[in-house]
Write a structure and sequence with these properties.
Elements: E1 25-34, E2 40-55, E3 58-69, E4 73-81, E5 87-94, E6 101-106, E7 109-118, E8 125-134, E9 140-141, H1 146-150, E10 159-165, E11 175-188, E12 197-205, E13 209-215, E14 223-229, E15 235-240
Parallel strand pairs: 9-10
Antiparallel strand pairs: 1-2, 1-15, 2-3, 3-4, 4-5, 5-6, 6-7, 7-8, 10-11, 11-12, 12-13, 13-14, 14-15
Length: 249
Amino acid sequence: MEINETIPIVTPGDGTVNGENIPPYTNSWEMIAVNPDESITRRGIWNDEISFYTNKGKEILRREQHVYYNDREVIHNEEIYRETLMPIKLKIQNKGEESHTDIYFEEKRISGKKIFNIEGLNVIQKVSSQFSIEFPEVVFDWHLWGILISGFPLKEGYCARFLAHESYSYLPGDFRWFTLKVTGKEIIDGGKWGNKISCWTVEVKAEVMWKLWIAVQKDIAPVQQIRIDNTDGVQLWWKPLKTNMVETS
């Protein structure tokens, strides 16, 4: 996707992004990797649940994700303001272990604990460490991934840029500019949501290239399918689960 620096910039709270059309739901994807030789590796199951509650008059979106890899379970818990999709807190941990990511967002201040990438050797080292940042402006958090993108006013040809903190990333980084573009519509098999789901196709230039299929219909899970083009030539897919056999433990 070609990047044009005249693309409009969206900032938190400017009225562009909100979560009013995100319903409560439970959803599951099958995770697969398509390797450069076109062989397929089955990576596991990703379960995603969104619910809502009210705190001090503000509606809070609570997201809980359980990722069942072949060798471990990873749990993601986060809360955001529904009105603006601004983050409140995020925790990520391997099941049965102490959290390696535990972040709190207070206006311009971002603090807590997260994984830092250390480069310079053949393999990038990862270290979980405490941090505290007072950023010059309020920003989004990219850990919301497709849920954040679904909050934009998507339509044919829509483009936008936004600045976000990277709580967890495929490449080293703390803050990054993200550019999204709606490239069209596609009908896909949405598994439990139906075999003909109309989706906006959205390309996102992030730490790597993302393609997201965001449901046009507003009463189902907004993120129907994801593809990430990794730097090693592997395509990582999150495809709608087409079976009632969903892992829960």
